[in-house]
Known about the structure:
The structure is a single chain. The chain is α/β, with parallel strands linked by helices. It is 56% helix and 9% strand. The strands form two sheets. It has a five-stranded parallel β-sheet with strand order 5-6-7-4-8, sandwiched between helices. A three-stranded mixed β-sheet has the order 1-2-3, with helices on both faces. Strand 1 (32-37) and strand 2 form a beta hairpin. The protein is globular and about 70 Å long. Residues 122, 126-128, 133, 158, 160-166, 294, 322-323, 326 line the site of adenosine-5'-diphosphate.
Amino acid sequence: MIGKEEFWDDVKNELSKTMQTISYEIWIEKLEPVCFVDSTFVLAANTAMAKKTIDRSYLDQIREVVNSLDSFVTDVEIIVKDQEGEYLEKQSVSLPDKGLIVDEKYSHKNKGEKASPFLEKYTFETFVQGKSNEYALAAAKTVAENPGGKYNPLFIYSGVGLGKTHLLHAIGNYLRKKSPKTKVVYANCETMINELISVIRGGNNEDSNRFREKYRNIDVLLIDDIQFIIGKESSQLEFFNTFETLFQLNKQIVISSDKPPRDMPELDDRYRTRFSSGLLVDIQPPDYETSMAILNNFKEKESIQVDEEVLRFIATNIRSSVRELEGAFKKVQYFSTLSHQKITLELAENALKDMIKPDSAREITVEYIIDIVTDHFQLSSDAIVSKKRQKTIAYPRQICMYLCKELTDLSTTEIGEKIGGRDHSTVIHGCAKIEELINTDPTVKKMIDILIKKINP
Ligand code: ADP
Ligand code: MG
């Protein structure tokens, strides 16, 4: 029989694997286990506000994990700290011999029901195949069907916006569905760096052990954007030890990067060799046919009326990445909605004239910054401009404000207008907040550096 503390530790451990680090730290870590009442696991939040947010945004996820760890515990209830007494009384009345406390750790584990860390929309089915990406797609599929097989490690590299993250999530989604027992961990720079920094900074064994536990006890490790993770000597070491252990155990490793190992001077030689020892594949910017296929795909998905000539215009002029194609398509759509006009070639030319200025460097716009930030935090792009105020959105929003101030010439008033019609004082406050964090928290500083690199490579 395990106690509430231990059970809660296991739940937290699972949640930390699937949630964004900041959300996890802000909302989950601070909860305290109170008791089991019948088949309900009761947790206490510090404030009524916290309870409200958790009820709204995280309760389902917590419930799912709780239930997957012990199928007898079917519900979760969040209370506010002061109500604890009331619940403890209730517990003593209803508890006797209900047998509701977990008696065998994980005995009823039902892994397939855990919350997914993978974006649903990034699957093999939604990935449009073309000359520019067919090898990467085929390799990713092979790995998903037969992890730990002949392509190990699989190393996928390309410029930004060409589908690396999409393919990594597709592998994860596929395995979750076809082989739910396989333990897949997706590590992007945000999760990994935060963990590595705490291992290194803390210098204590507990953090290191937790890190090792998490990463060594898995079947498939998907590492996105490794170029942002490596660099620091000590983090390389911890990371590579993990890598080596998994590799020796014949566990599948998939790595994405913006360049091949041979062009990563910061990489230790033996790892350059290791990374190159499996399969290296690149994704090229989409050729014209692939671009057309992708655009047609958007058109079908959005079920809107667009003539071929408009798609051809976009495919001819926007050549650099799929993300840009997506952006161009959305911009045309947006222009037509705003002006209540049908999508014509003329309208498209007008809408895209900034994006296709020949030879000019890419203009850094507020929209582009929002795109990169929402992508990083895996939010939908309208979350930033929405009125929502929960921390998981407000914080990335403040990061957008800060980056707009640093990377564009716009005034705080203009930035506020573009970020959901906010007041300039809100923008000033947001920027100050982020600046303060940058100066006090190295993980935030690192993240902002990464975002700036993503926006302005
Ligand atoms: P990367 O990780 O290489 O920077 P992403 O995987 O984030 O790129 O891709 C950027 C966007 O383009 C995503 O919305 C993704 O779904 C889309 N995308 C990229 N390649 C394809 C493709 N072949 N078919 C459909 N969508 C794609
Ligand atoms: Mg990516």
